[in-house]
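TODO from last week: model Glycosyltransferase A (GT-A) superfamily protein (DUF2064 family).
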Amino acid sequence: MTTGTLILIAKEPVPGRVKTRLQTEFTPGEAAALARASLADTLATLERTPARHRVIALDGKPGAWLPPQFRIVAQRGDGLDERLAAAFEDSYTGLPMLLVGMDTPQITGPRLTVDWSGYDAVLGLTEDGGYWCLGLRQPDERALLGVPMSTDHTGSDQLTRLEGLGYRVKLLPTLRDMDTPQDAAAIAAAYPELRTARLYRRLVHAASPTLLFEQALDGAPVTAMGSDGSPLLRLSEMDRWQAPADDVDRLAISRCEGPVLDLGCGPGRIVTALAEQGVPALGVDISELAVRQTTDRGATALRRAIHDPLPGEGRWGSVLLMDGNIGIGGAPAALLERCAQLVRPNGLVVVEVDPDDDLDCTEAIVLHSAAGRRSTPLPWARVGSRAAIRYAAPAGLDAAEDWRTGDRAFLTLRRVHDRSRPVARSVRAPT
């Protein structure tokens, strides 16, 4: 049996313009990649399905992903109802038409090979209340214009409209479309052979660490694991990082001499506390969200990697590595060398270290989200005071103070003029 005309209504898979609801778990680029994969799966099925004509109603520019068997018509109209009506009108050749979207990569040829005997229209509903296909014997804008789109009752409203026009409607099986990360996971699990499923599995196990860190900033539960799967860092402590500076934080920044540079500032509680005290301070973080949260607090922050050029190099009074940021990059010696480059002569580097004085671990960590995403390995280090002092010495940083309060431990390091002289022994200061 041959279907008359198959129509695919689709958007060019451009990051930021497609699959925006997937971006709660995926970057815009990853969401666009999933959209491209879904589009490729759908096009492959349409290619295999017997049809007299194949049309793609496209929003955007055609690319290499478009098979030659498809005639392209540009989408026109304002709302989706107008664009759907126009797609039927622009694709009509006198044969029945079946239109599908790009959000159900699991569709199969048999589902699209419709027996129109005794029917005027075809409708396939989706689990979220929409529909994945609509078939009409001939264009009829009355069937579409004014039907509310993108709601949890669009499918039922569309059915009501068709039946109200006296159409005999053939209902196809209900499918799940891919709008949310949960949808993508379910489709990938149920149809593992799809290109969409293969890409989903790769993305789930290779998330950007920055993406998962930003999810933690937004309040999602994220855990840092070692290579053996043991929990190492609880990013649930983000609650403390999001709160105003506490007494321990204020004790640490009381050691600072201005101006202050906070490396890996996160959501900016330290920079904000310094600004409230009238101390010039700048936060630096690679996370766009962290910088925005810092500036939203009224403090100053810059999106920049630590080893990129930074303002005022060699002139900062103090550099801060709070919240275990001595671990950034997994190379504490190189990081402390960078801090020494940033502070002025006799300037300070205040480092929060691990409470275990003897700890010296440079094991990479992997971030895990509650939704099942896993980051690529992130170079990280966890060091106690003794290891930090040892790493600081070649950088010309003298351990001036070694102190702790509660379950948090700190070092105050001072940049010495003459790196050839011995580094002073640390002093465990009372708190």
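Done. The first strand starts at residue 3 and ends at 11.
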